[in-house]
Amino acid sequence: MSAPLDAPPSVEAVVLWLALLAPPLLGLAAWRLPPRRMLPVLLVGTPLPLATLWLLHRVSVGGGLEGAWSLAGLRLHWHLDGLAGLLLLLTQLLLLASAAYAVGHRRAAAVPERTFALFWPLLGGLAAALGLIWVAADLLTLYAALELMGLTAVGMMLLPGTGEALLAGMRYLLYALVGSLAWLLGVALLLGATGRLDLAGLAAASEPGAVTGIAMALLAAGLLLKAAIFPLHGWLVPVHASAWTPVSALHGALVVKASFFILMQLWQRLVPEAVAAAWLLGLLGSLAVLWGGLQACRASALKQVVAWSTVGQLGYLMLAFPLLAGTSAAVATLAWQATWLQLAGHALAKAAMFMAAGNLVLADGVSRLTDLAGACRQLPLALMTFGIAAVTLMGLPPSAGFTAKWLLLQAAILAGQWPWVVVLVVGTLLTATYVFRVFRCAFVEASPRHEVRPLPAGMDLVALLLALAALGLGLGAEWPLALLREEGMP
Amino acid sequence: MSGALLLLATLGTSLVAAVVIFLLPERAFRARTGINLGAALVKLSLVAWMVWGLSHGREYVIEFPVLEGLAFVLRADDLGIMFAGLSSLLWLLTTIYAIGYLEDSPNRKRFFGFFGLCVASTLGISLAGNLFTFLVFYELLTLSTYPLVVHRGTSKALAAGKVYLRFTLTAGMGLMVGMVILHVLAGDIRFGEREILAELGPERRPLLVGLFWVLIAGFGVKAALVPLHGWLPRAMVAPAPVSALLHAVAVVKAGAFGIVRLVYDVYGIELSAELGLLYGLVVVASVTILFGSLRALAQQELKPRLAYSTVSQVSYIVLGIGLFGPLGTIAALSHLLHQGLMKITLFFCAGNYAEELGIHRIDELDGAGRRMPLTSLAFTVGALGMIGLPPVVGFLSKWYLGTGAIQAGMPWVIIVLVASSLLNAAYFLPVLGRLWFRPGPDHGVGAWPEERRLGRLETHGWLLVPAVATALFSLMAGMLAGMPFSPLEWATRVVNAEYLP
Amino acid sequence: MSLSGELLAAGLLVVLAASCLLDRYLPRACLAFIAFALLMALAWWRLGAPWLALAEAVMGALLTGMALFHGLGRPGSRSPLPPRDHEGRPRHQAPVRWLAALIWLALAGMAVWGVPGSGEVAASAEVARRPLLVAGLAIMALGLWAFAHHHHLLRRLLAFNVLGSGVFLLLAGLAGPVVEVQGLILVGLMVALVGSVLGAALLRRLHALDGRVTLETGPETTP
Amino acid sequence: MSDALLALAMPTALLWPLLLMLRVPLMAALADRGRPAALIDGLWCTAPLPALALALGVEEGALALDWWLFGGHWALDGTRNALLAVTALLWLLAGGYARGYLAGELDKAVAGDGGAEARLTRFALLWPLTLSGNLLLLVAEDIASFYLGFAVMTFAGYGLVVHSGTPDARTGGQAYLVMAVLGEGLILAGLLWGAGSAGTTTLGGLREGMGEAPGGAWMGLLLWLGFGVKAGVVGLHLWLPLAHPVAPTPASAVLSGAMIKAGLFGWLATLPLGEPAATEAFTWLGRAMLVAGLAAAIGAALYGVCQRHPKAVLAYSSVSQMGMITALVAMGLVAPALWPALSMAVVLFAAHHGLTKGALFLGVGIGEHPPRLPGWLLWTLLALPALSLTGALASGLAAKWAFKTVLYDGGYKVVVTWLSLAAVGTTALMARTLWCQWQADRQARQDGLEPLLSPMPLAWLATLLAALTLPWWLGDELVDQGWPPLAELPGLLWPLALGLAGSVATWGVARWRPLRVTRRLPPGDLWWLLVGGWQRLRVWAQGSLDRLGSVQGAWVAWWVARERDAIEALDGMTRGEGWLRRHAAVLMMGVAAGLALLMLFGTAGIGPA
């Protein structure tokens, strides 16, 4: 985007855009020169989260940043507040982790280097798309970023090239495209009604009514499909089960949540008072929790369990809608914090869990749960990582999942919305059921030993660090949440 | 060392030990043993330091906010340090025991790692300064004990682990919901801020009663109150040190300690009495006491019998809480320690019999007193204490419970106590009779199921020493109950300082 | 631009879209789609968006068409797709799909009728765009129905492309050919193209792997 | 005696037996394998010596130990001294006797009999332990120590009862233990209740508090029955005739002579005897005790004469004698004014019975292994304590005279008459004992005599001597009634005459036509009924438990089946996933429609806002 700027950009803006645009460039560079070790990847990538940290510090001191580009008569807006900054930081950390993991994965899974080289530009594209989504403040940028994210994600899913992966990727592609068209239709209606594309202007110009409502309904349906919320989650599990581990990790952790993020942004700005519809979303979320949990309990392969768990966990996020719609400020603040904490905790934990599961599968050479017997002896670290990540997913202390669940419960109880309390309780128990099902299989002692392939130590380490981060976020939640609280809600 | 640092160091000792153990390779037997014992000793001395400090009026608090209006609080008060002292003392002994017990068995690294985590959680429970912090460690305890329960990896162990989780996780959820409701109602209640709930309006009273029972149910699962006790006898499949820890310190005590905290430090004893909650507690405890004893009587194997005995004995604590009055409170608090000492002795001994002679059933114990005199002596001390005979500590608890019941105007509790004593006698005396007075393989009658001759003494020294030590402790704590820093004295101090109504 | 011309164009668009979506003979359907895309380009031209028209002609008609025919496979090439779609769907589900598409249509229609007059859209242009709006709605509903109805992956790709075009028409019809709309449509076109290319390539691979032309797996595929 | 000395002497007296006990395993460990040490040596026998010295050397004294349990409080006074002296003396002599009695076991052990060695070790360990319990309970003034002593004595005593390990011993031990546990329970209940309402930890406080407490009589009843188990109150005496015959003779002697008296001491220490302030209910308790005591005194005599084992006869005699003492103690509640004088008589009676019964029991052993004494001398010596017990001689006469005068002075002639009737029974019992011993002696003399200078006869003789001379050495205040004038003798001796006459008559009848009744009246009377009832109860309980188990099994099976069904249903549901996957597009339209409808029409809000 080499467009003339309105005003000389601030240092912060420059840093932000550098941080956003660096990954694709790095990705392209890595395509030509694929990294063979983890350390260079980490070294090259580390400045990005550091830059974001600095930006966050600036934001917390001086309030949100915003700005606009002009491009052929179009004005494209962006803004960076606490939430966007935190999500950006989370994204960069996860990308870095999966990039590092991917190096090890390639080596351990013996993927041909040429095949794998494609991973890097796609990763860079995904990083740029996610970053754009967090900071975008108009629908056009959002649309472009969403599509970029969807296409790069599909591309990454297809990389293994197996029949399953192709099939699942095809399904993902079709549904992602249709979902974006539904979203585009909603955008069209909004644009027609208000003539604005920037979020702030849209919020100011739109008035609650049939048009906004229908537009939001169509748009939401599209985004729900992309976010794999029950009952539109059908494409998610096959995709996760067949993709490479770093890809599934990124996808489960971030990609589906980007759609949720957009939906939340629009919903809060345009139809914050649509209580009934918000309850429907909450209901869908609840069903997702139940359905995902039950399916995970019955799944037979390890990665499937993890994938189904994503379906279930995404449901928790949806509970934010009823808790934010038409409730008191106290409830809304609680629910707002809970949602983003849950998102962050789940992102870290899910990535860690996918990586741990990937390590188990890769090292053990089996994918079925029942074949895991003895894993606790042979692969203690991977299993431990899996366990720590599972603690967050179950929402047991001292994890981020726990703190988020505490906030959600508090919000639900304060608002008197008891059904969500039941959902949270049942969801936790279901999660515990499938998580410990894995452990029950792994703890079996009387089993034939099979050969364990040694994995690069970094793979376990990356996963463990992510899981520990999710755990530490539980008690260390005050810093990010304070940023969120200062910022307030849109 | 500042107060906060001391607290963190105490908590961190076992945590760091656990992490280091996880990092060590499986073969590093010596290093692991050294770390285990070193950490246990360091922790014990740190706790002793805090006991000394507390008795000199020092304060030990550390806190930081986790959420808006919700803090993570660690605070050593008299009551907490009592439990901390128990857990660190018994951790040391159990560690010694476990080192001997698990010699040459697989997965020791995992075992000791989670063992350390388990103790760290127990310590966290004892030092928690509000319900939130308590819950954090309470759930952590559930998680860290699971690998210990299923340690053997047999299908029976895994099934027991499943049942264990079903009970404890469900209870944990109930607890969490109850705590959140309480939080919504009254904000962040630090332990000891009893006036917050007491000052709520009368229209909140029914809600408070309901919440109380929800929370009691949550704690009651770990404390194995009937009918929430189902997991405990099944968890017997775990290795002996785990059973010992589970029954004596960690899990059941955590539940009982939670009830203590809830009644004394959150609701306040007066409010609980006003709301009529204590009578219900007494009834629940009485039913549990009798039910546990009756079930124990029906068991043919040693460990299940001990397990049901735990069900019965832990409820003494609850019973003491329910007896609104200083004596009942003293009974509850001191029994927290007393039961730990006695029960851990019994489990150590049961483990010794199983390890050395392969004995699991009671009728295989004939004449074991001659073969393993010190173990049998320790077992005898524990059993007599459970029956409530002086000078073992069990008598003190029973005495204070009985007199407390009279003071509380519930003389029928004495019937429960005496009936429980008789039942205890009925299931322990035959065991003792078999140990000492029946001719067995050492008298030339029959043979041991699986004799192993683990050491030059009657069994492995690492196994023998802890059992004898805890037996001695429970004997001394009873005989020297009038000495300063004895459990009874400390409980009296707690009551005098904080809970006298 | 006369209204009747617009009406004619709109009607032609709908007819082409329908023939593209309903034809079981795939090469013909693809050809219909190319014609449809060219007509779309014409429509853009007439709306006063020449760049968009160019983009539509190049990306929508030419490149997408090529991609589709690549997906179909030349008769001489290795493992071409059967030119006719034999996939059937159980009859009893058809009403549900119709109903869903109609509700969708109704919703969009309600919203569309609610939109004009509220914003900055010029009144003169409004009338001229009305047929486009109707056509866009119809094409969108048709596309959505077809996407839900068809199993054959190529037909689903076609349906998706038609659906996209419908949405673009609606977009232009609602807000006029303003720069924002052009931007959105341009992005949409690019995405559609990439999606079609990717989809067609995938279809080839899948067909080459195990001869499948649908997503269905297992015994539930064709009851 | 100075406090400091007392503070040293009292723990010494209690700890000495324990030290000797600890010496046993040390000796056993030091001894060579296969050459068992002589565990029961002279030093071992000295266990009660410090206590005896304490009892005889100290008049009054108290010792407070703050660190001990709830605060230890040990004391010595008149009653305690007397009982302590008699107890210690009896334990001392019986210990000496045991040296000889167990010499046979030692020989067997040396010969390589592992069982004998184990039994010997056990005996050597438990004897001093039981002793220390017995001593502790006598000096304890705080409830905890008292209960501790009582419990130690009771449970360690079990080991002495089952010493021989035969099935009979097992049965006797079982009866002993069951009744003891029951008694402990009752005592604990009474103590807790009493101490709880009085808010005290000492026996004195308990006694005073109980007299006035509401429900005090019920506490009294619990304590009476609880201690009554040990003291052989009728109905609770079942263990006595079962345990005594099977226990080794020295153990029987201390059981019957010393440990039974612990029950009596329990009454004296806890019941508000002679308290004028005690409530009316206590009078009723006293009456019940009186009736029970007299019933025991007479009933046990009637049942006892039908026994064949001399020790069983003696056990019933103990029940009978303790019944008489119960009746006397009861008078302390019925007529509090009499108690100061009566208490002396009770203690004297108890002391007399303790030593005399000890001598009699030891005599049974002597009859089985007769020393080289002329027959007439031996039989005179054996008959002397019997006569004393009937109240015709020495300490017996003094004791009888003591309570008779007090009761006469108080105007309770009826009680005296009943007691005299009991004395008739005692005479019959003694005659029966001697007869049984005569039978055994004839058998034994054929097997050979043993030398006089072995510990057994010496200990027996010493006991005899101590028993007969009791009034002269025990203490002046206890025998302040002095000796009866000659004119009163017929009044005191007629029961003896009557009893003798009856015995001779019965003997004559029995010679003419053997009485079968002895076969049908086994020792332990009601015990066998209880055992029968217990068996039936167990069968019933087992049956119902089995039924319960099957119900539970069905319940569990039902739940397992439901779980399986649920999982099947779940699997069915999860197949719905395929449907969801295929119809995602339609579902998206549905979701959009639902959302839109709610947006349009549901703005009023379904959910609570």
From TrEMBL, chain A:
Pfam family, one: Proton_antipo_M
Transmembrane segments: 14-31, 38-56, 83-104, 116-136, 142-160, 172-193, 213-237, 249-268, 274-294, 314-336, 348-367, 379-397, 417-436, 457-477
Topology term for the membrane: Multi-pass membrane protein
PANTHER family xref list: NA(+)_H(+) ANTIPORTER SUBUNIT D1 (PTHR42703:SF1), NADH DEHYDROGENASE (PTHR42703)
The protein's name: Proton-conducting transporter membrane subunit
Localisation per UniProt entry: Cell membrane; Membrane
Family under the similarity heading: Belongs to the CPA3 antiporters (TC 2.A.63) subunit D family.
Keywords: Cell membrane, Membrane, Transmembrane, Transmembrane helix
Domain NADH:quinone oxidoreductase/Mrp antiporter transmembrane: 136-431
TrEMBL record, chain B:
Record's keyword annotation contains Oxidoreductase: yes
Sequence intervals crossing the membrane: 6-25, 37-55, 79-99, 111-138, 163-186, 207-232, 244-264, 276-294, 314-337, 377-397, 409-429, 462-483
Domain NADH:quinone oxidoreductase/Mrp antiporter transmembrane: 128-422
Keywords on record: Cell membrane, Membrane, Oxidoreductase, Transmembrane, Transmembrane helix
Top-level taxon in the UniProt lineage: Bacteria
Keyword hit for Protein transport: no
Cellular location(s): Cell membrane; Membrane
Topology versus the membrane: Multi-pass membrane protein
UniProt xrefs under PANTHER family: HYDROGENASE-4 COMPONENT F (PTHR42682), NADH-UBIQUINONE_PLASTOQUINONE (PTHR42682:SF4)
Record protein name field: Proton-conducting transporter membrane subunit
Originating species: Halomonas rhizosphaerae
From TrEMBL, chain C:
Keyword Oxidoreductase assigned: no
Keywords on record: Cell membrane, Membrane, Transmembrane, Transmembrane helix
One family name in Pfam for this protein: MbhD
InterPro entries xrefs: MrpA_C/MbhD
The keyword Magnesium is assigned to this record: no
Membrane topology, as annotated: Multi-pass membrane protein
UniProt domain MrpA C-terminal/MbhD: residue ranges: 12-68
Subcellular location: Cell membrane
Record field: transmembrane: 6-22, 29-45, 51-73, 94-115, 127-148, 157-175, 181-203
The protein, known as: DUF4040 domain-containing protein
Native source species: Halomonas rhizosphaerae
From TrEMBL, chain D:
Record-linked InterPro entries: CPA3_Na-H_Antiporter_D (IPR050586), ND/Mrp_TM (IPR001750)
NADH:quinone oxidoreductase/Mrp antiporter transmembrane domain span: 140-365
Record's signal peptide: none
Domain of life: Bacteria
Keyword Transmembrane helix: yes
Localisation per UniProt entry: Cell membrane; Membrane
Pfam families, sorted: Proton_antipo_M (PF00361)
Regions that span the bilayer: 6-26, 82-102, 146-163, 175-196, 216-240, 252-272, 284-306, 313-335, 341-364, 376-399, 411-431, 452-472, 492-510, 584-606
Topology of this chain in the membrane: Multi-pass membrane protein
Record's keyword terms, sorted: Cell membrane, Membrane, Transmembrane, Transmembrane helix
Homology family: Belongs to the CPA3 antiporters (TC 2.A.63) subunit D family.
Protein name listed in UniProt: Complex I subunit 5 family protein
Phylogenetic lineage: Bacteria, Pseudomonadati, Pseudomonadota, Gammaproteobacteria, Oceanospirillales
